[in-house]
Structure formats: structure tokens, C-alpha cells
Amino acid sequence: MTTTTPSVTSVPLLERFRVPGGFVLGAVLLLGVAPLALSDFRLSLLAKYLCYAIVAVGVSLAWGRGGLMVLGQGVFFGLGGYAMAMHLKLADAAATGETLPDFMQLYGTGDALPWWWKPFANPAFALAMTVLLPMAVAAVLGFFVFQRRVKGAYFAILSQALAAALSIWLIGQQATTGGTNGLTDIQGFFGYDLNDPVNQRMVYFIIAAVLLVLMAIARQLFVSRYGELLIAVRDSEERVRFLGYNPANVKLVAYVVAAGMAGLAGALFVPAVGIISPALIGIVPSIGFVIGAAVGGRASLVGAVLGAIAVAWAQSTLSDAFPAAWTYLQGLLFVVAVGFLPGGLASLGVVLRKRRTRTTPIPTGETA
Amino acid sequence: MTVILNQSFTGISIGAVLLLIALGLTLTFGQMGVINMAHGEFIMAGAYTTYVLQKSISSAGVSLLVALPLAFLVAGAMGVLLEWLLIRRLYTRPLDTLLVTWGVSLMLQQLARDIFGAPNVQTSAPDLLTGNISLGGGITFANSRLFILGLALLCVLALTLILKLTPLGRRIRAVVQNRDLAEVSGIATGQVDRMTFFIGSGLAGVAGVALTLVGPIGPTMGTNYIVDAFLVVVVGGIGQLKGSVITAFALGVLQSVLEYSTTVSVAKVMVLVAIVAFLQWRPQGLYTLRTRSLA
Q1: In chain B, which residues have their Cβ closer than 8 Å to the Cβ of A342?
Q2: Mind spelling out the 3-state secondary structure of A247-275?
Q3: Which ipTM score applies to this complex?
Q4: What is the CATH code of the structural domain delimited by B2-281?
């Protein structure tokens, strides 16, 4: 885009209120219109889609702005989800007077709770872990990987392998993680019965509020000095290094923040859907986390969020009715959105406008 | 001792499978920096080629021998088609090819499901390859595994000869080392790319034929191997044949030894940690092309 940057005074009123206005509109739609217009069932589906949208906020930051191909977001989503589910399972067990979660009584080798489950009985610890654990893993991995300038395809494949490894490990530890089934059948959420539609609505409101807050935070990051630096690293890492910055740190921050967001999304996914399992966090869902952002527009926050919601909606609506057709459509979506519209649907307007202007002769004499 | 030797042999046969799959990737990934996730589906195409052939040719041995070149052609043709339709448009955005080809791989999997059905199918191995060879001292090696090892080494040999001795190989190496310079020297890089993709994808088809000997054939069979194969290429050094050979066997042995001392899942995780640690030491992989470019 080659629009001239207008000075602050010349920004039209409409333009100046576009972002806060859009934010308010989004808040009204999510917190006011949707709960009124949608049935309990549809609202709980929307809650699930919004969890994917939260992941997409992080993807938009790390991939759209930072150029980091984060194909392992399932790992962080899973860590957050399991941290939350472990606590809720323990709380469920405690509510019925048991010491062990139900699946451990089935598959478990002993009567004792594994030591690494014990701290998760504490709600504050578990809540903190849903965000801190993914961030810590991302920080350690990112530190080593970025410091040694492992990037591009190498980074994408490593993060993909990480997602595969975690889901394989979880499946292997059936006695302590529930194996392929994952942690299922979660009844309560910090003392509230999740079978009660009112409490399901409460969960929806929490998720929607978290999404809005995270979008606001991401937006501030985008327009901050750091956001500019992140784009600079994406577009010309060497130049940034020669200017005296350390691109590794810039990338690390984006990666860790995105991981924290994915972890939070995973944690909220558990009360909304009632399950977390290896099938939700392996290679395939990890790529799924990225595709929504790619379709909507990876570098555009709103585009990424709407894209994630739309793809998740299409998936659950179409995959039940036409499973085969949906797989073809999904494949086609990857090809068309990423291959031919790299800016996603958010850039459709720009692309079309360019098309239209290209037909008129260019006065500068440049042919490109 | 016997146990350790047996585990190493298992590792070598895992490595041979990895090597067969990674060979084609070394070419396509190495030459063009293109991450072709549909490579796994070319493996699947090769495997289904064997399956279809066995339906028309009843002799398992003959059908296997016919399947090898045919699978090479089928998978190679699919590779060329993919390159021509999509990948050549994305050379400036190599990372995006990963997502685009993932989409292609989804569609190909569904296509296989529609044609052959979702359940796995099985081929029967020729009698010659069903038994075990005893190497004395309680060490055994399955014939089919030995066949795969031989096939993998044969492919490496053939590929090495092509790259070293033929004009095509010379051009391929030139494009890998410096695409721009090759282009101004009069090499039609577009054609070379297409040939590279043909050979690389064809090798995936051959790998698919080999896999029918050790496992079932199904629409998602490629996905199970693809990430491991990419790891082999990354650790070996992109575009480095000898790096892939060494890495494939090293990872195979490491995996099987760790599997023996722990469990399959823990071994997977430990191998991954080892790879991340290795990339700390050599971020560009085992062997690298020395260039003057930054980063």
C-alpha cells in the first residue's frame, strides 16, 4: 500500500474513531447481540470458536507480524488445556469424595496421585500454569532456537515436530493423562455446575471478554515501537541486526506472547467444550490454528480473528453434513487463501482496488 | 549384547525407511527450499499403485517389481503437476508452500478415501520377503526389512550417480548452489526444477512401494512419516545427500535404542530434544554448503 501518511490533524473524524468504534461494535456484538440472539447450544459452539479466535490473535502477532511460522500452537493450547482440565478433574473428584480422577481409577497403576498432579489441586496454581507453562516452554525453546538463528522452514518443522511429540507422549501416558481419550467429562468449573445452561453462558461471557481484552492488548503491541520492530524483523532481519537490535529477542517476545495466548485459549476451551485430548493438539489441529488466520488475513488482527471463527464455524457445520466435501473445501481454502491471497480476505479490498487502478495508465512511466 | 545388536538392526531398518522417504525431500526441499507436505501423499500414491497392481497381477513378486518403476512414474507425474500448477508460483514465498501443499495433501487424502475407501488395505508380500534371515547368535533380520535397506541404498547410489555424472545432475547441483548464477549461465532453471520435482516425488512413490511390505496402506499413511522425514533433512543439512543418509540411520538407531530402554512415546520426545540440541550445535545441519550469504 502506498498511501501517504496523513498528519494527525488531517485524519478525518471517522478514521480516528474507526479502531475504538470497531472495538465497541465487536464488544456489543459478542457480549450483547450474540447471547440474546443465539440459543444455548449455538452460544456454546460460538464459545468454542472464540477459543480458536484467541489462538488466532497470537498467531497474527507471531506469524502475521513476526513472520514466525508457528505450526506448533497446539502444544501451547494443549498445555493450557491440560493444566485447566487437571484442576477441574481433581475438583470434580474432590466434590464426590474421591481422591483420584475417574480415569485414573480405571487405568491407574496405584492409588496415589502422581506428584506432578498434586499442585494442580490448587486453583490459583492451576490458573497461573495455564498461561505460565506454555510461556515457559516457548521461552526455553524459542531462546535456543532463535539465538542460533534457526528460522524459516527449520523453525516451522521443529514446531510441528514438537506438536507431534507432545500428542504422542500424552497418548503413551494413559495412566496419568487419560491417553487417547484425554481428560473428558468435566462437570464443574470452580464450583459452578457446567451442565447448567446459565453457567455455560457465564463461560461464554468469560471467553468473549478475554478475547476482547487480548485483542486490545495485541492491537497496542501492533502499533507500539515493538510492533514496528517486529515487522522490520519479519521483512529484513539482517538489516535490523545491523541497526543494533537483537532480532532473537524481538522474535522471542512475539513467540512467548503467542504461546501464552494459546495456553489461555486452551484453558478456556476446557470448560466450554468439556474435553481436552491429544487429537485436539497434534499436527493437524496445529495447522488448523494457523489456517483461520491465513484465510482472514494473518497480518490483520480483525481479519485473523474473523477468519478463525469463520473456518471453525464452517468446519463444524459442514463437516457433519458433508464430510468428504468439507475436506476438499478445506484443502482448497489452504491453496486459494495462502497461495493466491497471501494477505487473506482482509486484503481483498486492497487487491481489487489495485486491479482496478492497474487498468488505468500509470503516469510515472514505471511498468511495475 | 544380542539385544543391543538386534535393536541396532531394528534401528537400521527404521533408518532405511526414513532414508527412502527423506531422499526425495532432500532433493525438493534442498533445491528449492520448498516444503512439500504433499510428499507424504506421493508415498501413499506409490503404495496404492502397488495395491492396484496386485489386484491385476496375482503374483506378488512380479507385481512388486512392476510397481517399483510404475510408482516412480505415478508419484513423479503428480509431483510435476503440483510443481507446475502451484509451487512454481510460490518460489518467492517458500514458507507459504508448506500451507498450500498441506491443503493439497488434504485433498489427495480425501481423494484416496473416495476411491479406495477409508479403511486400510493390505498387500501380500512375495514369499521370498516374508521370512527372517538369521545372522547367528540369535540375531535375526526380517527379509522385507533387508529388501527395504537394499532398495534405499540402491536409490542413494542411483541418485548419487545421477547428480555426479549426468548433465542433468550437474544442472541440479548448479541450481542448488546458486540459482541466479545458474540462470545467467544459461540453465533453464524452471525445467531443472521440474525434473528435480519429478525425481524427488518419484522417490516418494518408490518409498510407498517399500512401505507396503511393513505396514498397511491407508489414506493417512503419508502423514505418519512426513514430519520425521523432514527432521532427517533438516538435521542432515538441506540439499545434502550424505547428510540425509547418516542422519536417517542415526535417528533410526537412536529411536530404537531409546524405545528399548524407555517407551515409544518417551523415545519420540527424547529424539526431538536431541534434535533441538543438535541444531544448537549446528544450526544449518550436519553438512552445509559453504556460501558467503548472510545467515
Answers
A1: 93, 96
A2: HHHHHHHHHHHHHHHHHHHHHHHHHHHCC
A3: 0.82
A4: 1.10.3470
